[in-house]
Amino acid sequence: MTDTMLAAVWHGPGLENFRLEEVPVPEIGPGDVLLRIRACYFGALSLRAILTGHPKLTPPMVLGRMVSGDVAAVGEGVTTVKVGDRITVDPVASCGHCFYCENNEPTHCLNQTKLSPGGLATYTRIAAPLVPGIVGLADDVSYEEGAYSDTLGPVLQGMEKANVRHGDTVVLIGCGGVGLTFIPLLKGAGAAQIIAADVEDQALDAAEAAGATHTVNTLRQDLGTVARDLTQGRGADVVVEAVGRAATYRLCFDVVRYAGTIVGFGGCPPGTTMELDPNLIHYGSLRILGTSHCSPAIFRRAVALINAGFDLSHIITHRLSLEDVHQAIEVFPQVECKTLVIMP
Ligand SMILES: [Zn+2]
């Protein structure tokens, strides 16, 4: 193994500051694992950081956190994995003893350990606190499928919050990769009607193919009217926002029934604000539940589901080599791009 590796290093906002560089392979200490990365998703967070910066990310750094690959080396004392194992890893570890961990909300842990450097590189170090979050991939699961666990996990957590009952009507706003991941799970949870909404017909076609019972292009149809027409005038039992814009969050309140549930999955750009009549919450007796990331236990269940053959064929749509990572800026925003995998 050489001492250096290729990495896409982010030096700050601006495409010219996102550069492929030869950097040292991360060193591992006792308890750490060195991962030869085979797949890493390029996500909205990376795109935003490269174009405009991100308040929670400090350059210079290597972006990317949804990874899979082969164990290349193990530090002293590591017994749970061995060199050559095909794995994915929960990119965030919680401490287990802070207020939030003790109250069973580990996604808000005050002492998180994160994967660093990120996955847009040939190797990364899995620091000792992250090692318990390593999960092996089944032989017939690809690296791209395995690395998707850090999206499937948060979707599974969103499903737990949604608490869909058999026979429910669910409105899903946003039919990108996340929306398409929700649809089979909503079906499996017994939703009788899944009304998928988007502004792109192509995205709606994909939603229908994935199992949505109704599709609504919100540029042409009023989503609230459709939802009420399909529920004897009540509105949807559950609404999932999977876009991350003020307008789509606001739309949730037009389609949910009294005492219904809104699940906020989409993350909005910093500074986003929304005008809302608070009486919609008060007199509507609404349950409004945010969700982001997932607990270690749910991450493990996401990998179990992928290892069992959860179909991602329509979700994993685009791939680039690490050498071509700059093309991600053009490829990722395309409507037909549900997900983009960088393959070092
Ligand atoms: Zn904690």
Overview of the structural elements:
The chain has about 350 residues and is an alpha/beta fold. It has two domains: about 5-150 and about 315-344, Alpha-Beta Complex (Quinone Oxidoreductase, Chain A, domain 1); about 155-290, NAD(P)-binding Rossmann-like Domain (Rossmann fold), CATH 3.40.50.720. The chain is about 25% helix and about 25% strand. It has eleven helices and 18 strands. It has helices at about 45-50, 100, 145, 150-160, 175-190, 200-210, 225-230, 245-255, 280, 295-305, 330, and strands at about 5-10, 20-25, 35-40, 60, 65-75, 85-90, 90-95, 115, 125, 135, 170-175, 195-200, 215, 235-240, 255-265, 285-290, 320, 340-344. Strands 3, 5, 6, 9, 10, 17 and 18 form a seven-stranded mixed beta sheet that branches. Strand 17 (about 320), helix 11 and strand 18 form a beta-alpha-beta unit. Helix 4 crosses helix 5 (about 175-190) and helix 4 (about 150-160) crosses helix 10. It is globular and about 65 Å long. The relative contact order is 0.15. The structure holds zinc ion (ZN). Zinc ion (ZN) binds next to helix 2.
